[in-house]
């Protein structure tokens, strides 16, 4: 038994010595990269980063009066010419006159006076000048009773979703704070700002979780901040498949081969060596991938895990470019635009 233990010890020493000898010419701390590319089905990878660009807005230095604001106009010494009381929200009565859709406020004696786009000071001077036609040295004071011209819509997983009205220039953080926090199921990585009907490239996750102030963009009237939940996770398959559209990711896991199997890949017309994937890493960053599915099917590459929101396009016979691929799937993406990740919405649906 003792001889056997000595033999085992001798063999272990030989193995350790042999292992060390293999790297004896390397300096301590040397890191050798694992050569894993040959096990990957990725043929081409292009990183894309989106900038706010023309979607950025400058903050107003002073509040500018707009439609639906309620102005209280007080003409000193002439209470009969001051603004009457009106109902707001059906139950709340305030003193003031509502600015109509043309930007005019309707006042006793003076009639309709245009105040759209004016500051409070400018509106005061203008209304006072109008009353000079009827009064000697009128003294006019103008105040905003209700701010109603710059709505901000908070939708989705806010603790207090709804419509809020901005009374000054608001940054994104201030706008988010109006919603009284977010629910536990909020999916910040998919949160987005919709402006003038299109998603703009702003990363709310980076702003709140990483403190990236470059994402604290200024808000403007009628902006929509939408924060979805994290319950439903899908990828989307188009092209040479019999069942195009969204594919559910069970427990958030799905491989490329599994997705194409669920979508029923049409092997007779598919070009499996150039499968294309539009991947969203954040609302401002993504990747355009070209995959060789045959490497996976033949065991030459590892299974390729998909990420939530991946858009997969299987070209038909003939090699197509990215432009041709996007052109073919664009109508389908437009039909399900509300389900897409912000990066895909911006990159494909709203940009050239």
UniProtKB/TrEMBL annotation:
<keyword id="KW-0625">Polysaccharide transport</keyword>
<keyword id="KW-0762">Sugar transport</keyword>
<keyword id="KW-0626">Porin</keyword>
<keyword id="KW-0812">Transmembrane</keyword>
<keyword id="KW-0449">Lipoprotein</keyword>
<dbReference type="InterPro" id="IPR003715">
    <property type="entry name" value="Poly_export_N"/>
</dbReference>
<dbReference type="GO" id="GO:0015288">
    <property type="term" value="F:porin activity"/>
</dbReference>
<dbReference type="InterPro" id="IPR049712">
    <property type="entry name" value="Poly_export"/>
</dbReference>
<dbReference type="GO" id="GO:0046930">
    <property type="term" value="C:pore complex"/>
</dbReference>
<keyword id="KW-1134">Transmembrane beta strand</keyword>
<feature type="domain" description="Polysaccharide export protein N-terminal">
    <location>
        <begin position="59"/>
        <end position="144"/>
    </location>
</feature>
<keyword id="KW-0564">Palmitate</keyword>
<dbReference type="GO" id="GO:0006811">
    <property type="term" value="P:monoatomic ion transport"/>
</dbReference>
<keyword id="KW-0813">Transport</keyword>
<comment type="similarity">
    <text>Belongs to the BexD/CtrA/VexA family.</text>
</comment>
<keyword id="KW-0406">Ion transport</keyword>
<dbReference type="GO" id="GO:0009279">
    <property type="term" value="C:cell outer membrane"/>
</dbReference>
<dbReference type="Pfam" id="PF02563">
    <property type="entry name" value="Poly_export"/>
</dbReference>
<feature type="domain" description="SLBB">
    <location>
        <begin position="233"/>
        <end position="314"/>
    </location>
</feature>
<dbReference type="Pfam" id="PF22461">
    <property type="entry name" value="SLBB_2"/>
</dbReference>
<feature type="domain" description="SLBB">
    <location>
        <begin position="152"/>
        <end position="227"/>
    </location>
</feature>
<keyword id="KW-0998">Cell outer membrane</keyword>
<dbReference type="InterPro" id="IPR054765">
    <property type="entry name" value="SLBB_dom"/>
</dbReference>
<keyword id="KW-0732">Signal</keyword>
<protein>
    <submittedName>
        <fullName>Periplasmic polysaccharide biosynthesis/export protein</fullName>
    </submittedName>
</protein>
<keyword id="KW-0472">Membrane</keyword>
<feature type="signal peptide">
    <location>
        <begin position="1"/>
        <end position="23"/>
    </location>
</feature>
<dbReference type="GO" id="GO:0015159">
    <property type="term" value="F:polysaccharide transmembrane transporter activity"/>
</dbReference>
């Amino acid at each position: 038994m003792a001889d056997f233990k000595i033999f085992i010890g001798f063999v272990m020493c030989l193995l350790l010595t042999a292992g060390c000898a293999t790297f004896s010419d390397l300096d301590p701390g040397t890191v050798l990269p694992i050569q894993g590319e040959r096990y990957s089905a990725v043929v081409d990878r292009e990183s894309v980063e989106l900038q706010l660009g023309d979607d950025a807005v400058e903050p107003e230095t002073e509040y500018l009066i707009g439609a639906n604001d309620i102005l209280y106009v007080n003409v000193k010494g002439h209470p009969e010419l001051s603004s009457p009381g009106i109902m707001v929200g059906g139950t709340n009565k305030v003193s003031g006159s509502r600015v109509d859709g043309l930007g005019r406020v309707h006042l006793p004696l003076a009639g309709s006076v245009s105040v759209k786009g004016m500051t409070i000071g400018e509106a005061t001077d203008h209304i006072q000048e109008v009353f000079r036609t009827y009064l000697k040295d009128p003294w006019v004071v103008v105040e905003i009773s209700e701010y109603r011209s710059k709505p901000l819509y908070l939708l989705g997983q806010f603790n207090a979703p709804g419509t809020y009205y901005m009374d000054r220039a608001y940054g994104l953080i201030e706008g988010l704070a109006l919603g009284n926090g977010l629910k536990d199921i909020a999916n910040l990585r998919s949160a987005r700002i919709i402006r003038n009907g299109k998603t703009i490239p702003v990363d709310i996750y980076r702003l709140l979780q990483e403190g990236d102030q470059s994402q604290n963009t200024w808000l403007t009237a009628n902006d929509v901040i939408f924060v979805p939940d994290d319950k439903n996770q899908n990828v989307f398959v188009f092209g040479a498949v019999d069942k195009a559209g969204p594919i559910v990711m069970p427990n958030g896991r799905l491989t490329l081969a599994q997705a194409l199997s669920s979508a029923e890949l049409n092997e007779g017309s598919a070009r499996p060596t150039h499968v294309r994937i539009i991947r969203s890493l954040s609302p401002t960053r993504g990747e355009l991938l070209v995959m060789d599915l045959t490497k996976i099917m033949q065991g030459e590459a590892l299974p390729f895990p998909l990420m939530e929101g991946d858009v997969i396009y299987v070209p038909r016979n003939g090699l197509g470019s990215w432009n041709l691929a996007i052109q073919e799937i664009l109508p389908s993406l437009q039909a399900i635009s509300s389900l897409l990740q912000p990066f895909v919405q911006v990159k494909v649906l709203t940009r050239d």
